[in-house]
Automatic annotation (TrEMBL):
Keyword Signal found: yes
Biological source species: Saccharothrix saharensis
MF terms (GO), sorted A to Z: peptide transmembrane transporter activity
Superkingdom classification of source: Bacteria
Protein name: Peptide/nickel transport system substrate-binding protein
GO BP terms: peptide transport
Sequence ranges assigned to domain Solute-binding protein family in this UniProt record: 72-410
Length: 490
C-alpha cells in the first residue's frame, strides 16, 4: 500500500512519471485519459468501479438510457412485462465477449444471479429481491415485489454483463478481457494505470481510436496540468480553481445531478440529537461556499435533487415538521471528507468555521477516498462531506435515496433508520414512472430532509478537460459514458 500511495504522490508532483511524453498524434490514435479516482474494489462491476468500466466503453448493460432517462436497447434488443413481478428481455445475437465466448441468455442470467449474491450487493439492488432465468434467447427477470423500473435498473453499470470467465471461485470478479464493449481491457496496474485496446470483434460501430491509456491521478491540479502540457487528452473533474488556467477551448462545464451534502451520524455521537442536527443545518451558509470555494460554478441546494432534474424544483413544496435548533454548547464533533475532489477540503475548512461560529468544537479529518470510505460507512465520524451523484444508477433518484437513507441502505453514511423515511421510499419505489412517481420521490426527499440527517449544500457542475485534438468525447451528466466508439484524435 505504501508503494501505491507513493506512486500516486509522484504522479501528482511529476507528471512526466505518469504520462508518456507528448508525441506526434496519429488520426484515431490512443487516447490518454487522466481519471479522478483509482479503483477502490479491484474494478469489480458490483462496486462503484463499474462506472470506470462504463466510461471506458469496455463493459455493457442489457439496457441503456437516453438523455431523458428513458430505457433503450443495449445488449437486450427489447423487453416486455410478463406480469407484475416478471419481465422478459430478448438477448442480442451475434455478440462476443472479449475472451471469444458468445453472449447468451445463460451468460446474462449468470451475471445477474451473481450480482444478487454479491456482498455487498450492487447499490442498484438495495432492497430488491431479483432472480434471472435463461429461456431460449431471452432472460426472465423476476422481482419479489412489483418493480416498475426493472428496465432502468438493468441499465446500471453495476449490472454490466461479463463473460463467465470473469467470475472466480473466490468470489472476485475480473473484468480484464471479459467485457463486450468496443474497447477491451487488457491490463490493470493496481491503482495507477489501465490499458485498453480497440476490440475489432465488437458487435456495433468499431472504435475510431486505437485504444485508451488510463492514468489514475487523484490530484486535481495534476490532472489540469496534464491537459495544459499535452500529457493527457482528456481529464475528468478539473477543479474549479484550475478551470480558469486552461484554454477555454479545452473546458466543458456540464450541469450534473450531483449534490454536495453534509451527512450527520444519527446513530452515535452528538448528532443523535435532532436539535443539534438542526443547529448544524442553521449554521451552514451554502452561498458562502458557492461563492468562495466554487467561484460561482455551482448552485445553492434547495433539496437533495438539483437543477439537473428540473421537475424537482417545479414540484417541491415548502418543508414543515423540522425540529428546532438547540444550543451546541461547545459539542465536540469530527468533520471528515476526502481529498480526491479538490474542492472538498476547502468546503470542510469553511464548514468548520461556520460550525465553530455556531458553538460546535470541530476536529477535521481529510484523507483520500480509498482510505476513508470504510471508516465513514462504519460511523467513525460525526459528520461527513460527500459529493454524491443522485441518479447514478437507474436514471431515477429512488436508488440513491434508498441506498443512502433507508435502514437497510448499503451506503447509509448518516446511519439513518427512520420509519417515515423507509415508508416514503417504499412508496416511491412502487409507483409507476411518470408524474406520480416524481411526486412520490419528492415526498421521500422531504421525509429525509425532515430528519436533518443530511444537509444538502450545493449542486456541482463538473468540469471536463479535453485537448483540442479530441473529437466526440461524451459529456454525460450521469457520468456513465466518456470515451465511446466515436471518440478519436484529429
Amino acid at each position: 500500500m505504501r508503494h501505491r500511495i507513493t506512486l500516486i504522490a509522484v504522479c501528482a508532483l511529476s507528471l512526466t512519471g505518469c504520462f508518456a511524453a507528448p508525441a506526434a498524434e496519429q488520426p484515431g490514435g490512443r487516447i490518454k485519459l487522466a481519471m479522478l479516482q483509482p479503483p477502490r474494489s479491484g474494478l469489480t462491476p458490483f462496486s462503484d468501479d463499474a462506472f470506470k468500466l462504463s466510461r471506458w466503453s469496455t463493459a455493457e448493460t442489457l439496457v441503456t438510457l437516453d438523455a431523458d432517462g428513458n430505457a433503450r436497447p443495449g445488449l437486450a434488443t427489447g423487453w416486455r412485462r410478463v406480469d407484475d413481478h416478471a419481465w422478459e428481455f430478448t438477448v442480442r445475437g451475434g455478440v462476443t465477449f472479449h475472451d471469444g465466448t458468445a453472449l447468451t441468455a445463460a451468460s446474462v442470467a449468470n451475471t445477474l444471479t451473481r450480482a444478487t449474491a454479491a456482498s455487498p450487493k450492487p447499490r442498484i439492488l438495495d432492497g430488491v429481491e431479483l432472480t434471472a432465468t435463461a429461456r431460449g434467447d431471452a432472460v426472465l427477470v423476476t422481482t419479489g415485489t412489483p418493480d416498475p423500473l426493472v428496465p432502468q435498473r438493468l441499465s446500471s453499470p453495476q449490472l454490466a454483463i461479463l463473460a463467465e470467465s470473469a467470475y472466480r471461485p473466490d468470489g472476485k470478479v475480473d473484468p480484464v478481457g471479459t467485457g463486450t464493449g468496443p474497447f477491451e481491457l487488457v491490463a490493470v496496474d493496481g491503482t495507477t494505470t489501465a490499458t485498453l485496446d480497440r476490440y475489432d470483434g465488437y458487435w456495433g460501430p468499431k472504435a475510431a481510436a486505437d485504444g485508451i491509456d488510463v492514468s489514475f491521478v487523484p490530484d486535481g491540479t495534476a490532472r489540469a496540468a496534464a491537459i495544459r502540457a499535452g500529457e493527457a487528452h482528456i481529464a475528468e473533474a478539473v477543479p474549479v480553481s484550475q478551470a480558469a488556467l486552461l484554454d477555454p477551448a479545452t473546458v466543458t462545464e456540464v450541469p450534473m445531478p450531483r449534490t454536495n451534502t453534509l451527512y450527520l451520524n444519527t446513530r452515535s455521537g452528538p448528532f443523535q440529537d435532532r436539535g443539534l442536527r438542526a443547529a448544524a443545518r442553521e449554521a451552514i451558509d451554502a452561498g458562502e461556499i458557492v461563492r468562495g470555494v466554487y467561484e460561482g460554478r455551482a448552485d445553492v441546494a434547495q433539496g437533495l435533487l438539483g437543477p439537473a432534474l428540473p421537475w424537482a424544483a417545479a414540484g417541491r413544496t415548502p418543508l414543515t415538521g423540522r425540529a428546532p435548533a438547540t444550543d451546541p454548547g461547545g459539542a465536540a464533533i469530527t468533520l471528515a471528507t476526502f481529498s480526491d475532489r479538490a474542492e472538498l477540503p476547502e468546503v470542510a475548512s469553511v464548514l468548520q468555521q461556520q460550525l465553530e461560529d455556531a458553538g460546535f468544537t470541530v476536529t477535521q479529518v481529510v484523507r483520500e477516498y480509498a482510505h476513508i470510505e470504510q471508516d465513514a460507512l462504519a460511523g467513525k465520524f460525526d459528520a461527513f462531506i460527500l459529493s454524491r451523484a443522485t441518479v447514478l444508477d437507474s436514471g431515477d433518484p429512488v436508488a440513491y435515496v434508498q441506498s443512502d437513507f433507508t435502514c437497510a441502505g448499503s451506503f447509509n453514511l448518516a446511519r439513518l433508520c427512520d420509519g417515515d423515511v423507509d415508508a416514503a421510499v417504499r412508496a416511491a419505489a412502487a409507483t409507476e414512472a411518470g408524474d406520480q412517481r416524481r411526486a412520490a420521490i419528492l415526498a421521500a426527499e422531504a421525509a429525509v430532509l425532515r430528519t436533518d440527517a443530511a444537509i444538502p449544500m450545493l449542486h456541482e457542475r463538473v468540469i471536463q478537460g479535453d485537448a483540442t485534438s479530441v473529437v466526440d468525447s461524451a459529456k454525460d451528466p450521469r457520468e456513465r459514458t466518456l470515451i465511446t466508439s466515436a471518440t478519436r484524435l484529429r
